[in-house]
Amino acid sequence: MVAMFSLSVRTQEWLIRAGIFLLFVGIVGGLFWLVRQSVQEKQTQEALVTALSRATTALEVLGRDTGEQPGHIPLKPCLADEEVSLDDCRAGLVCTDGRFPFWQGPYLPAAPRDPWGSVLRFDPDYACLPDIAGCGGEWWVRAIVAPGPDKQFDTNDDIVAVLCRE
Questions:
Q1: Residue 40: CA count within 13 A, CB half-sphere
Q2: Separation between Cα atoms, residue 16 and residue 124, nearest integer Å
Q3: Whole-model pTM?
Q4: 32-90 pLDDT tens trace
Q5: Is 11 helix (H, G, I), strand (E, B) or coil?
Q6: May I ask the CATH architecture of the domain 9-165?
Q7: 69 pairs with which residues across the strands?
């Protein structure tokens, strides 16, 4: 013998309404999540632009005061070969190693970091590629580099502020 399970019309209506309500809540929740993700991406981008801009301005002032950039590299020619983390005293932005002539710093209260917490790096011989944010082409540049979300330099998710190029 097979047992039949039946619901009253009222119970069926209630279940349909509950299902529609849960569907509606799921759709609204998904939309809120998408908006939240978009806002977070915008805030991350704004924080990165601010960090790169502050570092660029500090490097310009350091160069004007001392005639050098991090690692005691002269302002010209554009390319050289000394990567320096901007929290290193050889960078001359937050502290000095004592070798910068006419140093007037600190030029920044703290080393600039990207939104993922990594300290930015001064790289006077960065190999730009078209898919790297901020490069806009393929050439060698002097740049300030943020390692991006993977926290590794010299990968495709680097973000670059080009100071000069050759």
A1: 7
A2: 65
A3: 0.74
A4: 787 777 667 777 777 788 888 899 899 999 999 999 999 998 888 888 888 999 999 99
A5: helix
A6: 2-Layer Sandwich (3.30)
A7: 73
